[in-house]
Amino acid sequence: MAQFSAAPDSSAIPAYDSGADSAHTLPAGYSERLYNEDLAPLKHQTWGAYNIFAFWMSDVHSVGGYVFAGSLFALGLTSWQVLIALLVGITLVNVLCNMIAKPSQQNGVPYPVACRATFGVLGANIPAVIRGLIAVAWYGIQTYLASSALVIVVLKFFPQLIPYADVHHHGFMGLSTIGWAGFMLLWVLQAFVFWNGMETIKKFIDFAGPAVYVVMFILAGYMVWRAGWRNIGINLGGVKYHGMEVIPVMITAISLVVSYFSGPMLNFGDFSRYGKSFGSIKRGNFWGLPVNFLAFSLVTVITTAATLPVFGELITDPVETVGRIDYPTAVILGALTFTIATIGINIVANFVSPAFDFSNVAPKLISWRAGGMLAAVASIFITPWNLFNNPAVIHYTLDVLGSFIGPLYGILIVDFFLVKRQKVVLDDLYTVSEKGSYWYHHGVNYRAVAALLPAAVIAVICVMVPALNGLANFSWFIGAGLGAIIYGVLARKLQRGA
């Protein structure tokens, strides 16, 4: 029979063979419906604070992160107000990440396995598949955006290729020939890093995070030198609000920061499971979130502000900023750096997650690598360029799926900290025995599902109904709060025997 690939961190746990001679590798009482070595609790947790710090650097330092920070000025806030909102928001993300990290680090299990304690050993596929589908869509979109940046730079140096960028004459399925070449190049590079396992991913993000920082500081320094420090005005948003009226707008900005990180925050357990101690996770989160994000935001604000005197207009896209620099070497270096940055965030946020999530659906048939490649192949067939270029499609698919993230988070946190009091029976996460702690009813905790659905529906309504547009920016908090409250009430009734 076919052999399962090596586990994500081959130095931590052995490979799992699904052949007939592998029966002895299945721990006593564990079910093949729930177990392979990729999903097994880690025997050796080796990541220190720096590895977590580098993880967040790779997650933050991206074209999307740069554009997001710059976009907050569109709310009409001044630079110092944007910085305060960013800092408060990321500090809140830090606290939330520490909470969601605890069950996975404590037990050495990935996000979908940790979900089994709350949703049931079979019901955990619900939160796993939801997170996996979101990751697949964003994986494709991020790959497309990175390839688009690369194509722009290539066409600048090789203008004879411009005819092949015309999708109407040289294109297929809505993407030009040169677009396909760029997309598949990025697709293969990311697959190569992923296929080599979690240890390679760790080394990649350990390098990519600091490398991007170096180029970001160089770019900021160059832009300041071109503009002249005195010519840089940091009140980019202008003064549109006075006194207390600015507070609701800043609260909106804070909520947007949390929403921006909600995806990787939900499945942070996929990475915190490798932490050698919970203290290492907390230290890595502190340096990687509040400290790192503040430094990144400062560089972003300064660089964005400098584009006004240098180019005569405000540019929030770093790829466009680099593309306007007169020195070819700088353009190439900048383009490669932002490409590496996007590969970094795509792997940590959108590749590792569906790898575990889809493996959890059928552990005997789908390894971690197979799950990741399944997601990668699916990202091609959804034609992310068409998805990205159709705001209505993105709105009605990704926003609907995203509305489930808040409720999932709230339910998981309440269950682990308030219902289970941080105690999980590890072996029962891998058994389908009706005597198992997490079998519930037919393998599903219907109370968790009953809390998820109404909370998610209300969050979706907030996003979709134009009349409730003001609540859309707070959909994560609304969903998380409702999910937590409803599940807490249902769980309390269960404890009382109701």
Do you know the CATH topology of the domain at 45-390? Hydantoin permease
Helix content: 55-70%
**Would you count the extended β strands for me?**
2
CATH architecture of the domain at 45-390: Orthogonal Bundle
Give the overall average pLDDT: 84
The CATH class of the domain at 45-390, by name, is Mainly Alpha
- Helix/strand class: mainly alpha
Q: Give a short account of the largest sheet.
A: 2 strands, antiparallel
Q: Give the helix tally.
A: 21
Q: Strand portion, in percent?
A: under 5%
**Shape annotation:** globular
Roughly how many Å is the radius of gyration? 23 Å
Low-confidence stretches: 1-24
Task: Give the strand order of the largest sheet, numbering strands 1, 2, ... along the chain.
Answer: 1-2
Termini gap = 48 Å
Q: How do the helices and strands line up, and which of them pair or pack?
A:
Blueprint: H1 49-60, H2 63-71, H3 79-107, H4 111-119, H5 125-157, E1 171-172, E2 175-176, H6 177-195, H7 198-227, H8 246-260, H9 262-266, H10 269-272, H11 278-311, H12 318-323, H13 328-350, H14 352-361, H15 368-381, H16 384-388, H17 391-402, H18 405-419, H19 446-464, H20 469-472, H21 475-495
Antiparallel strand pairs: 1-2
Helix pairs in contact: 1-7, 1-11, 1-13, 3-8, 3-11, 4-5, 5-6, 5-13, 5-14, 5-15, 6-13, 6-15, 7-11, 7-13, 14-15, 17-19, 18-19, 18-21, 19-21
Describe this structure in words.
- The protein is mainly alpha-helical.
- It has a domain of 346 residues: Hydantoin permease (Orthogonal Bundle).
- It has a two-stranded antiparallel ribbon.
- Helix 5 crosses helix 15, helix 14 crosses helix 15 and helix 19 packs antiparallel against helix 21.
- It is globular and about 70 Å long.
